[in-house]
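Allow me, if you will, to draw on your knowledge of protein folds for a short while. I am sending you one protein, given as its amino acid sequence and as whole-number tokens for its backbone shapes. Kindly check, if you would, that the fold set down in the tokens agrees with what the sequence suggests. The record follows directly beneath this note:
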Amino acid sequence: MSLIRFSSAWSCFLLGISPTANLGPISYICVNQRMKVFLRNTETGQFYAGPGQWTPEHSEALDFQGPDVALDAVSDSKLGTMEVVIHFEDCSFDLPMKIVATGV
């Protein structure tokens, strides 16, 4: 899967879906809530708050402008075992996306 378009100011974004999925080539997700983009360590569950800083609270985490900016931070800071979390006011809508490679 790959993220095609996203903006933290929008309440909608597009996700690319595997060609073998029965959902077609693109799925559209729309939620009527503001969203934020965080990085979370998959081993500790803590959110990235800045260089050398981690927090268990998403309210204290660094909010990235989009998944692409979060991925750049992973590459630039050489962070391992991370996932991008698209966070909504209602946590039941949160969307974690495991990072399998940063291209570095």
User: Anything to note?
Assistant: Strands lie at 2-5, 12-16, 26-30, 35-41, 47-50, 53-55, 82-88, 95-98. The first strand starts at residue 2 and ends at 5. The chain has one domain: 2-98. Residues 1-26 have pLDDT under 50 and may be disordered.
